[in-house]
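Re: duplicated header lines in exported C-alpha cells

Our pipeline writes sequence and C-alpha cells for each protein into one text file. With two proteins the header for the second block appears twice in some exports. Here is an export where it did not happen, for reference. First protein block:
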Amino acid sequence: MRRPHLSLQPDPDSAPLRISQLETPAALVDLDRLSQNLDRMAEYGAIHGLSLRPHVKTHKSPRIAAEQMRLGAVGLTCATPRELEVMADVTSDLLLAYPLLGAPKLARVLSIPQKVRLTVAVDSMIAVDELAATARIMDRPVQVYVELDLGMHRVGVQSVDDAIALAMRIAEQPPLEFAGITFYPGHIREPVGQQEAKLARLRSDLHAALERMERARVRPRVVSGGSTPAAWRMHEIPGVTEVRPGTYVYNDRTTAEIGACSWDDCAFTVLATVVSTAVSGQAVIDAGCKALGREPVRGVAGEGFAALIDRPEVTVQRMSEEHGILDLTRTSWRPRVGDVVRLVPNHVCIVVHLNDTIHGVRGELVEATWPVSARGRGGAPAGVV
C-alpha cells in the first residue's frame, strides 16, 4: 500500500472516525489520490525544468501548501491578502497574482512579514505607482511581474509596447524591481486533445512578446504561466520558466471531463445524505448550492452541477440552497432515504471555499482533519495550521 507523505499522516491525537459518523454535508479528500496528484505535478515540473509555484486558491490550506513546498515548489501563488497572510507561515516566497489597488489593501499586503520575498502582478500604471508609493513608505522591496493578456481577456496589458512601458516604469521606482512577466491561459479549456490551435497561438504570441522585449532590453527573468487544464502542456511553450496550477491537487468534474485528469484522480468529494425519494425519478440530498456551488461544467458540453463519484451518470440536475436533486433517469440504482453518497463538484475551488473543515479519508476511515484556513477576507487568526 502507498505510504502517505509526512504532512498527510493521520492525526496522532485522535482515533479515526468512520465516514458514516460524519454529519453531512461534509468535504472529503482521498489522501491517497491527493498524494498521487501532488507527486505527479512535482515530477512534471522537475522533468521539464519548470519551477512550480502552485496556486493555493484551490485548497487554501497550510497543510497542503507545506506538502507542495516539501515536494520542491519554489513558492506559492495567492489571490487574496488573506491567503498571503496564512501562507506566509509556510514559505518565504509568495506571489499575489491579482491586481493590487487601494490604500487599505496595499498596506495590508505589504505588512506581511519582511522575511517573505513578495511578488505582485500588475497591468496598469496606476497599480505600479500606488504600489511604489506604498513600498517606499513601508520600506518594503517588492518584485513585480507585468501581466500580459495572451487570450483570456480578463486582465493583462493588451500590447507588448504596454508591457515594456510598465516594466520600465517599475525599474524607475525602487524599491520595486521588475522580475518578469505572467499570463493566465484560462481560455484553454477544451479537451486536452483539442487544445493545439490555442496552444499554437499562445506559443506564437509569447515568442513575439519575448523577442520584442529582448530588443527593447527589457528582459523578464521569469515567464510565469498558470492553469491546470493546460498545465501539462506548458513545457511545449518555449520561454515559460514557471507554472502556477491550482486545481490539480484535488481535481474536479470539469478537469476530468476535458481529460486533464482521470476520474480516479478526483480526490475531493462532498458527502451527502439522501433525505427524500418521494418524487419518482429523482432523489433529494442535503447538499444544495451552499454545499456544491452553482457553476456549470466548463469547456465541454455537460449537464448538472456535480456527479456521484461511483456512478458518474447520476448528476445533480437542480438545486435549492440546501437541496440537491439527483437525476435517476439514466440509472437502475434506486437509493433509499438515509443512504449517503459522495459527489464530485464541477468546480472544486468554489466548493472548498464553502467549507470550514476538510476531512482526509482513506477507505472508510477519516484519518485527518484540517481547517480551510485561508478562506474568507478577514485577517488571519494567530496560530492557524
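Second protein block, exported in the same file:
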Amino acid sequence: MGCASHPRYRGKPITDKPKPSKPAKTTAAPKYRSSQIGYASYYAHKFHGRPTASGEIYDMNGLSAAHRELPLGTIIRVTHMANGKSVVVKVNDRGPFIKGRILDLSLGAAKKLAMVNEGVARVKIEIVKSVN
C-alpha cells in the first residue's frame, strides 16, 4: 500500500492551455444630463483671489460656477426658477460641498439672478457648450 501512487490533492487537472483572457473593461465617457434642477448658493469674499479647481483665479464679481461633476470649462445657463432670470456662466471650480445643493455661483452671477438676499435659490442648469 505504501508504494501506491495517488495524487495527494484532488483538484482541477493541470492543462497546458492558457485561460482565455477577459476583454478589458472600457469606461464610457460620462454622460451628463443636458439640464438639471436643484438648489444653488453662492460664494464670495472668502475665496476671492484664490485659485479654482481649473487653475483660474476666482473673481467673486465674475460669472463663474462650481459643480461637482460637469467638466471644467463647460458653459451653462442658470435660471432662477422663482423669478425667471438667467445668466450664462463657466464651470471653473468644484463644489458645492453642502448636501442638497447642485451649484455654487460667483457673487456676480448671484447678483444677475437676484438671489443674493435669499442666499440659496432653486435653479435650472442647462448646458450651453460642452468641452467634450
